[in-house]
């Protein structure tokens, strides 16, 4: 007895009784594709391997004790094997750049001013007549006619006993939001400005004839920042700041901003930060718009900053650079609109809204 090597048969046969229809087998080759198993000579296929082995042959012929030839294997490329494999070695990670001193001289950046902001500031008419009456005279007394500095109080100094009467005023700050006007201390809302001005104070106290320097000189502005792979961008949200008197200065690890507001008696907003990373001072730029100042500072070394700055209460004084920057204008459009939030003080027919100290005096919530 001999073994039949035809695919799909595998039986033992007697060569003396081997006829043309003794062996049922598959003359084609098996294939396995997309979980299917079958034979190339017939259309029968299955996903189960046992069913695949039990598929009956599609051709009758004699049994054969000769093994079918094995499929040829692809010839090896001796030339490719002889080639040396090149191993690419990455360059070592560069060490961090040495951090400059915080006292490094500051360089003033040249801002690009939007036409809308330039037109708004140039059209402002700040008259000296409308300036508040000085509270103190040459001999150190209070000048007659000096208005009470408490919010909502319209009383003026007369140098009589009534100057020491109770002062009805608002201890809070005025808020202008979505067309409504109200004081933060009593929440009486109105959409009419005259009614807002006429609202009686909600607390009693003493008149204040001399304004605090802190209320007069300091403005609070909101600022934010974001970063890309190559730049750090700081946006300061402010309105009606003077583009020519404001100053933006940087050194490799420091940012100093001073915005001047002419309508608020030249009050200023100051921002002095020690930056987390090192910036390229020469490629830094400033864009001044009607509603914000945008400062773009390219990173001098790659990497992400976890925060914008190191929190410090006071930074040491830095030297000034001899480079002076002059603002330029740009053709970029800027949307400028009137907002009641910009109103800081009103004086008309003896009615005067005292100087206010807003948390966001530029009308930015």
Descriptive notes:
- With 365 residues, the chain is mainly β.
- The protein has helices at 49-53, 78-82, 115-122, 193-198, 213-217; strands at residues 2-3, 12-13, 23-25, 30-33, 36-39, 45-46, 59-61, 107-108, 111-113, 167-169, 174-177, 180-183, 203-205, 222-227, 231-237, 247-251, 254-261, 267-275, 285-288, 292-298, 309-310, 328-329, 347-348, 351-352.
- It has a 6-stranded mixed beta sheet.
- A hairpin with a 3-residue loop joins β19 and β20 (292-298).
Characterize this entry briefly.
By secondary structure, the protein is mainly β. It contains five helices and 24 strands.
Summary tags:
single chain; 365 residues; mainly beta; 6-stranded mixed β-sheet; 5-stranded antiparallel β-sheet; 8% helix; 25% strand; elongated; disordered C terminus
- Helix count? 5
Number of strands: 24
Task: Outline the biggest β-sheet.
Answer: 6 strands, mixed
> What share of the residues does DSSP label as strand, in percent?
25-35%
Could you report the average pLDDT, rounded to the nearest whole number? 77
Distance between the termini: 99 Å
| Protein structure class | mainly beta
Can you tell me the residue ranges where pLDDT is under 50 for at least 5 consecutive residues?
A: 127-135, 331-365
Percent range of helical residues? under 10%
Radius of gyration: 43 Å
Q: Given the C-alpha coordinates, what overall shape results? A: elongated
The largest beta-sheet arranges its strands as 14-15-20-19-9-22
Helix/strand order, N-terminal first: EEEEEEHEHEEHEEEHEHEEEEEEEEEEE
